[in-house]
Design brief:
Elements (H helix, E strand, L loop, with lengths): L6 E5 L4 H17 L2 E9 L8 H4 L2 H27 L6 E7 L1 H12 L3 E5 L5 H5 L3 H9 L3 E5 L9 E6 L3 H17 L2 E9 L12 H7 L1 H22 L4 E9 L1 H12 L3 E5 L5 H5 L3 H9 L3 E5 L7
Parallel strand pairs: 1-2, 1-4, 2-3, 4-5, 6-7, 6-9, 7-8, 9-10
Antiparallel strand pairs: 5-10
Helix pairs in contact: 1-7, 4-6, 10-12
């Protein structure tokens, strides 16, 4: 069974960034044999926050009907574009409300295995302020989320998989194998030794103390063993690892750096935020990578089967 289940949910807003997301979602759904659903959310204030006299006023009801009709028209336009790309849309879902909340809720209702969203943050300053919608969907969704960035007409060619030996990274590995095998993409695997984990228990640790304690050598040995095991698993699943990479430093910064050096088109990593509290505190690594890397990012969540 696919890591991504049987349904892909594409969230669109008609922006140039969502065009690239649509192309990626179409290619993935075709390659993986997944059913595609399309959602467009017309932004509106939280309906529960409106006074009852406003919520049920005739003018308000007429306005809501007009807004929903507009959302349906936008969806029909986007569905036509997807058919032009060679895809099929199983169903469209016009929504009114907070885009991030509506997308997350619909993904749960559909039991979607993957949500695809565009990102409006392309320049350094904009990425720091990366939007409410894509960042919030990554943070709160129960399922895997692909934030699409890049050149509209350039298909993904090189994938960087970040691993750390956790259950979540095992699932991310399966996702990366599935995508690269189906689409014929080049797969690179990265393991980052976090600097803080190398500090031995001593009063005044420093580089000389690390070397003397053998902590660095032991950590590197374990990391290389992990890279070797993951490469063997990938090959056993029919995938191919172009190259393995070992880095030392802060995981989010090293993932962004290596992705840039490789010219990666997609970064794949797991998320440790699986429960409600975990998602609210979604950690530093996946959310920081989504915010700062130049290319598309796939944050993988779901149930681990096998491996």
């Amino acid at each position: 069974m696919s890591v991504f289940g049987t349904r892909v949910l594409l969230a669109t807003d008609g922006s140039p960034e969502s065009v690239h997301a649509a192309r990626m979602a179409t290619e993935l759904s075709n390659k993986l044999g997944s059913e595609m659903h399309l959602v467009y959310v017309e932004p509106m204030p939280d309906m529960y926050g409106l006074p009852e006299r406003v919520l049920y006023a005739p003018d308000t009801q007429n306005y809501l009907e007009e807004v929903k009709h507009h959302a349906q028209e936008r969806l029909d336009e986007e569905a036509a574009k997807i058919r032009d790309y060679g895809g099929e849309v199983a169903a469209v879902h016009p929504k009114i409300g907070r885009p991030d909340a509506e997308i997350v809720q619909l993904a749960e209702e559909l039991d979607a295995g993957l949500v695809v969203v565009g990102s409006r943050g392309f320049g350094p300053f904009k990425r720091i302020l990366l939007g409410s919608v894509s960042a919030s969907v990554v943070r709160h969704a129960n399922t895997s989320v692909l934030v699409a960035r890049g050149e509209e007409d350039r298909p993904p060619g090189r994938v960087l998989l970040a691993i750390d030996g956790s259950k979540e990274s095992h699932l991310a590995t399966r996702a990366a194998v599935e995508i690269t095998s189906a689409a014929g993409l080049e797969l690179h695997v990265l393991c980052v030794l976090e600097t803080a984990q190398l500090l031995p228990q001593m009063p005044y640790p420093g580089p000389e103390a690390w070397e003397a304690s053998g902590a660095v050598e032991e950590a590197e040995r374990r990391a290389r063993q992990l890279l070797s095991r993951v490469s063997e698993r990938i090959e056993a699943e029919g995938g191919t690892v172009k190259e393995s990479h070992l880095a030392v430093g802060k995981p989010d910064k090293e993932i962004v750096r290596i992705a840039g050096e490789l010219g990666a088109d997609l970064v794949v990593l797991g998320s440790r935020g699986l429960g409600a509290v975990g998602r609210m505190l979604l950690g530093s690594v996946s959310s920081s990578v989504v915010r700062h890397v130049w290319c598309s990012v796939l944050v993988v969540r779901g149930e681990e089967r096998g491996w």
